[in-house]
From TrEMBL:
GO terms for molecular function: ubiquitin-like modifier activating enzyme activity. This is Bacteriocin biosynthesis cyclodehydratase domain-containing protein. NCBIfam families: cyclo_dehyd_2 (TIGR03882).
């Protein structure tokens, strides 16, 4: 297959860049920079903007800080200078710059967990700090007061959220033991049987920024009923679950922007008919399977989800870093130390959410 120039350009924007080994940058001002093989010797190349528009220095300052080319051009370089900056990067490519192309955007991709976190953690933190102050009016509802839900609530309390609610039933009895009395007073704790959670969500739909289903058990029937509630009431929601040595982060479902839980199940069933039959059996004969919950796995899953939370709440699915769980699920496998990304629900595909979309447009 022959790549078009547009494909090549898009591929370039997704790559991270850094100076080749042995080269150093010496930033003299916002308009002048040297690239040197020897810090005590003569410079190999001098980069200078004669028009003094203050982009050369900032561009090279951020060169080795885990940015993609697209992020550098969009966030650092003034719009009139983007083409010039891109030409400069291409000019330096042969001798001075290395391009790194870890591509985690394919439908299904496995990479080393350590490599993935090393590559993305700093970018997540950097963007997370920018967005965190925007959460003051957000209301996040956690469904489930077990080990996963309780840990999530603990982490949510550290953010500057407007309101945190948790729906729990008497069988959970975990939330209070994991959270201090002082912190627990900040939570809107709603004690209801699990069967009443969907109705509560529907009644409070106008105030909810995001609902997170974080129950310890595997319960497809509940997922299905909550999904219909979310579709009918335009509620944005995410899945968060762990079992044994696995963590499942996402998908995040956004009404009229992504597919829904049914789309997700349809996509999974396309490649595994046995899985489809298993889910159908659980729904027809209601039962919730309770897997072993590993606290260490829960900690990592919740931490990862929290980093993505500001993007979800602020509706930025188009951003590079923010696209972590929107329309996709990340599966962490701690037996083999790998992470698997699946783009499962980028588009509306099942009758339920498609009809809801048509009705709203109509």
């Amino acid at each position: 297959m022959i790549n078009t120039k547009r494909d090549q350009y898009q591929n370039l924007l997704k790559r991270k860049i850094k100076l080749k080994p042995g080269y150093n940058k010496v930033i003299l001002s916002s308009n002048k920079c040297y690239i040197k093989k020897q810090l005590w010797g003569k410079h190999d190349i001098k980069l200078e903007d004669p028009y003094k528009q203050n982009w050369i220095g900032p561009l090279f300052k951020h060169l080795d800080q885990d940015y993609t080319v697209g992020e550098l051009l969009q966030n650092i370089v003034p719009a009139p200078k983007i083409n010039e900056a891109l030409k400069l990067i291409l000019y330096l490519k042969e001798s001075y710059i290395d391009f790194i192309a870890p591509d985690y955007s394919k439908d299904s991709k496995e990479v080393e967990l350590l490599d993935w976190f090393t590559t993305n953690y700093r970018s997540l933190i950097r963007n997370h700090e920018k967005l965190r102050d925007l959460l003051v009016n957000a209301h996040v509802v956690v469904l489930g007061g077990g080990k996963v839900g309780s840990k999530l609530v603990q982490s949510l309390l550290q953010l500057n959220l407007g309101k945190v609610s948790i729906l729990e039933n008497s069988s959970d009895k975990v939330t209070g033991s994991l959270i201090s009395d002082h912190a627990y007073q900040k939570i809107n704790s709603v004690m209801l049987p699990k069967e009443g959670w969907v109705d509560w969500i529907a009644e409070n739909k106008d105030s909810i920024s995001l609902a997170v289903v974080a129950i310890d058990e595997f319960d497809p029937q509940f997922y299905d009923s909550f999904n219909l509630c979310a579709i009918n009431n335009s509620i944005k929601w995410s899945l968060l679950a762990t079992e044994n040595s696995f963590a499942y982060i996402g998908p995040t479902f956004i009404p009229q922007q992504t597919g829904c839980f049914q789309c997700y199940m349809m996509r999974k069933s396309e490649t595994d008919k046995g899985y489809s039959e298993f889910i159908k059996h659980l729904i027809e004969e209601p039962q919730a399977i309770k897997p072993y919950i590993n606290p260490s796995v829960v900690d990592i899953a919740v931490g990862y989800f929290i980093l993505n939370l500001p993007y979800i709440i602020n509706d930025k699915p188009q951003d590079y870093i923010s696209d972590l769980t929107i329309g996709r699920q990340f599966q962490l496998d701690f037996r083999t130390n790998t992470i698997r990304s699946e783009n499962l629900i980028k588009y509306l595909s099942c009758p339920s959410c498609t009809n809801a979309y048509i009705n709203r447009k109509g």
